[in-house]
Structures are given as structure tokens and as C-alpha cells.
Amino acid sequence: MAGRDNREDSIQQAVELFMKGYGCCQSVFCAFAERYGLDIETALKVSAGFGGGVGRMRMMCGTCSALVMLAGLEKGQTRGEDREGKADCYRLVRQLLETFRQENGSINCAELLQMNGVKAETNTSQPDERNAEYYRVRPCARKVESAARIFTEYLNNRNT
Fold first, then answer.
1. 129 — alpha (psi -120 to 50), left (phi > 0) or beta?
2. How confident is the model at residue 6 (pLDDT cuts 50, 70, 90)?
3. How far apart are alpha carbons 37 and 112 in whole angstroms?
């Protein structure tokens, strides 16, 4: 994971992490974490609870939670009275999530799963076994790729 500087590589890295069993939020967040000075272990821990639509409750898609956290690293204000800084961060969050919604139809985990015909169970914290069937029926790897691409495009275009 270390040593990747090319922003385009972050998209592939995010998908690779997901295919290795990491959660959707972890996969996207960790693909960019080092650029903000976060070591991978810390990034994995911080983002761990957001998978499955936050603790497998099927709320906001974990990839979207990663976009929110990345927006905070990029634009988050550090002074409580900084209303303009907070507004800048919120604008970026809204931009990233709206792009995701336009590309994927929703930012909600349960809705994204049901769009692909997967039953979106919320009554257990037990993650599904990662096997060939899991990867075949779930749209999650494509959502990881989409979110990583959206953030990469933001990074590529922010100074233009």
C-alpha cells in the first residue's frame, strides 16, 4: 500500500483493498489516507465502523462515509468559530455525495443493495462471508471504484 503517489493508482488500490476483505469505507478512505499523513493502521481503525452503511445498519453507503471523511481531511475547519471553513467543507461534502448519487442512484446502502437485487438485512452486525457469490451479486466493488474515482477527479480538478 505504501509508496503510491499516482492519484489514479488510488482507484485501483481502493478496489484491491475491498477485494481483500476490507470494508467499503476502509477501502476508499485508506486509498487516500497517506496523502494526509495518516498511517494505514490508524486509517483502517478510524474507518472500520462505517462499513455496511454504518455498522451494517444499511444507512449511508460506507464509500460515501469515506468521501465525507476525506472531505474533512481536505477542507475541514479546525476552529469552532470558523463558519466559512465549515461551509467550505459542507459544500465539498455535498458536491462529492451528489456526484455519487448521480452516478449510482442513491447514497443509501440498503437502496444500493436492493437496486442490485440483494436483500439488505439490518438485523445483525455479523458481516457476510466474503466468497465468490458475495462478490458476484453485490455492487459494492463498483461503488468503491466509483467513490475513489470521484475523489480522484476532485483532486485532479481542484486547482484548475
1. beta
2. low
3. 32
